[in-house]
């Protein structure tokens, strides 16, 4: 739209109009519905809705499919009516022993992360096929696991000023009148822009660790509510247990973990809990700074693992 392209939604291409051996236009029909009653992609078009758009170039950009002409019947690799390679979705094995497939060629157009996940799944199946031994995630032979815990200094560690309000840095692009042919439109960030954009990262690997059990060390929560008041994102709250909608298993877990009796003699739940919405937390550290008894710290864990297959 920025390039003044007009978009005509809800149209289906009907035929290409030619004149003197050249393209003269595209005839379209209006789309009445896209999915059928079973929710399948099955467009229906309105009768007598043909319209011609004048054009000297028509670019086909729909209905991409895999070219499977290299698969021959004697290969034993079955192809589905959708022109995808038939696979067992649990193992990604094709119908030919020792041949595995995944990604768009097996499941039709999807997305990059599904294709990557398929690559991992297929690698496990191939390992099992060759060695006759299953790999189940953790059954890999763990050679080394290093865990590093960094406890931030609540008094000193600060994020850059205004980091949570920094606006996204737009990717520089070629001037509109120079976007011709196969010109590269998105030009990429300069070093300064890249640093500015990455400084918006909320560091979500840093966690608020609430330590309510430090009676002996004097770090037990005194329920002052200071952390709740100061949180700019309103993502933490102190809630009386009888206001918490929960099930018995969580209550039993809390009782055993903290060695307390949550349900008093009247079966009324006593005590309070701190609840937090991690997705809204911007890791500003203000709650930790505010806590008068030091029972909140900002901590981060990094783990690295090396496996032997
Ligand atoms: C225009 C477009 C935009 C997209 N945007 C996104 C997006 O923003 N985010 C997202 O997650 N996904 C996006 N996708 C989908 C994503 O690109 C695919 O789901 C993903 O690339 C599938 O990965 P794949 O490995 O299965 O197949 P592909 O990435 O298609 O890889 C198949 C490879 O096999 C090669 N090949 C084909 N035939 C042969 C042969 N006979 N011999 C040897 N090699 C062969 C091809 O050249 C190709 O390199 C987009 C797709 C398109 C078409
Ligand atoms: S780190 Fe900041 S945003 Fe997160 S809970 Fe504490 S005060 Fe709220
Ligand atoms: S600021 Fe500290 S003591 Fe006060 S409610 Fe929060 S965690 Fe408890």
Your description of this structure?
The radius of gyration is 30 Å and the shape is extended. Helices cover 17% and strands 23% of the residues. The model has no long low-confidence stretch (mean pLDDT 88). It is built from six helices and nine strands, in the order ββββααβαβαβαβαβ. By secondary structure, the chain is of the alpha+beta class. It binds flavin-adenine dinucleotide and iron/sulfur cluster (SF4) (2 copies). One iron/sulfur cluster (SF4) is lined by residues 221-227, 238, 290-293, 295-296.
| Overall geometry | extended
> What's the CATH topology name of the largest domain?
Alpha-Beta Plaits
- Classify the secondary structure makeup into a structural class: alpha+beta
Topology, number of strands: 9
Give the integer mean of the pLDDT values.
88
User: What is the CATH architecture descriptor of the largest domain?
Assistant: 2-Layer Sandwich
Estimated helix fraction: 10-25%
- Computed over alpha carbons, the radius of gyration is 30 Å
How many distinct domains?
Answer: 4
The CATH class designation of the largest domain is: Alpha Beta
Q: What order do the helices and strands follow?
A: EEEEHHEHEHEHEHE
Bound molecules: flavin-adenine dinucleotide, iron/sulfur cluster
How many distinct helices?
Answer: 6
Main sheet properties = 4 strands, antiparallel
The parts where pLDDT drops under 50 for at least 5 residues are none
